[in-house]
Design goal:
Length: 446
């Protein structure tokens, strides 16, 4: 058993092969230059002694190195996630190391390798980053560390951390990124739409001193008389409104862009949007459907509700079947009696597809504030923007432009029937969705 373990851990270093090649050349030359033969023999014996010394340095300690892989509690889908590695050299001599980590199969990395140097009795930490593109369970294999002394003739392989698993959840990093938008003071950053607040709701918040730019119609004359200074009533957005994110899990949502499906973009956006809604005091809920009604979560603004939404979104998968909007309308009419904001994540690639579902969308819009989210095809934009040198390329650009025009036409058709619409690129979905919610809230529509 000990011999088997020794053989499994023993690897010959690259420097040993180079030395043997050099000695072979000397022995070859000694055929014509006989004086080189004794020198070659001495060098061969010296190499054997150094080889044995290197073996003793690396194998005399049964545990020459301690290594560990530290994984976060969960990974964030489509974001960069850090994996930390810790090393501790138990030997008194400095060593060089090469780390080969068995990364989960979903990443399809077969050339992962990290190398470095540790002093005698030294410690070190290093890290690398992974970007998952699918939700689910990711299994890490062994953490292999190859160590060698400064002689470099022998390498010893050590294996650690056998079998670790981490779950990949919807993008909570993206959720935290847009968390600041929940504040009452709207900030304007690059890429964020400036929202003009129209009037105010009837929910009173406080009386404050008048500042230049405040609405003079909000002056509280009784408070002004008492304070001998201009005082105004300040109002806040009406809270506790039910807001549902409805995710279409049909086959139209399986279309991929930059490694992520439209379903994953919708899930990431749903989590970020629900976080903002809850922080603004509204009730957030989630509904998933395709040809059948899948899982749903009633609207709530409890602090623990976001964790329930995260767990629900974690296991969603597309079922590749046509979506039944009539079933969704019936379910909403039966289950959601209070007028709510309904954010529907779906996609229509053809005008005929929209026409089939338009009666149901109009029926939903009569009972709720319906916002339909559709996706721009960024690949078509790339084709339409390319320079054309041949007739076939002109034809492709024309077709791409026609599809893009039809998509904008569908958005206008929905608006014409009183249905709010978001037509966005997949990567800009979260910010555009949140901005639409804040815009509708500022206009007092919810």
């Amino acid at each position: 058993m000990i011999v088997k373990k020794f053989i499994q851990q023993l690897f010959l270093g690259f420097r040993l092969y180079l030395t043997l090649i050099g000695l072979s050349l000397i022995f070859l030359l000694s055929y014509w230059i006989t004086a080189l033969f004794p020198i070659a023999v001495i060098l061969l014996w010296s190499l054997g002694v150094v080889f044995l010394l290197d073996l003793v340095l690396l194998f005399r300690n049964p545990h020459p190195l301690q290594a560990s892989r530290v994984l976060p509690e969960k990974f964030s889908n489509s974001d960069s996630n850090e994996v930390e590695l810790g090393l501790e050299n138990k030997l008194n001599i400095p060593i060089d190391y090469v780390i080969i980590d068995e990364i989960p199969m979903q990443f399809q990395k077969r050339d992962f390798e990290l190398s470095g140097y540790l002093s005698g009795k030294g410690e070190g930490t290093l890290s690398y980053h992974l970007v998952p593109l699918e939700r689910g369970e990711y299994f890490f294999g062994d953490l292999h560390v190859f160590i060698q002394s400064r002689l470099g003739l022998v390498r010893r392989r050590l294996s650690f951390q056998k079998g670790q698993m981490v779950k990949v959840y919807p993008s909570f990093v993206q959720m935290q990124q847009y968390d600041f938008l929940a504040s009452n003071t709207y900030r304007v950053e690059q890429g964020l739409k400036k929202i003009r607040r129209i009037g105010h709701t009837l929910e009173f918040e406080q009386i404050k001193e008048y500042n230049l730019g405040d609405d003079v119609r909000s002056i509280n004359w009784k408070a002004t008389a008492k304070a001998a200074d201009l005082m105004v009533n300040q109002f806040q957005d009406e809270k506790s409104q039910p807001i549902y994110s409805i995710i279409d899990m049909g086959r139209v949502m399986q279309m991929p862009f930059d490694g992520l499906s439209l379903l994953d973009y919708a899930i990431n956006s749903c989590l970020a949007f629900s976080n903002i809604a809850i922080k603004k005091g509204d009730k957030a809920g989630v509904i998933t459907f395709s040809h059948i009604m899948h899982r749903s979560l009633a609207a709530s603004n409890r602090k623990t509700h976001l964790l329930a939404i995260l767990e629900l979104l974690y296991g969603l998968k597309t079922d590749y079947l046509d979506t039944d909007f009539g079933l969704l309308y019936t379910w909403l009419k039966r289950k959601v009696s209070q007028r709510s904001m309904v954010l529907l994540f779906t996609n229509f690639e053809h005008h005929s597809a929209l026409e089939r579902q338009l009666p149901y969308l109009k029926a939903i819009a009569r009972q709720h504030l319906l916002v339909v989210v559709m996706f721009e095809n960024t690949l078509l934009e790339e084709v339409a923007g390319q320079d054309s040198a041949r007739i076939s390329e002109v034809f492709l650009q024309t077709v791409a432009g026609k599809f893009m025009y039809d998509k904008r036409l569908m958005a206008k058709e929905l608006n014409r029937h009183g249905i709010q619409t978001i037509l966005t690129k997949p990567k800009e979905l979260s910010i555009n969705t949140i901005n639409k919610y804040l815009e509708l809230k500022a206009r007092g529509m919810i």
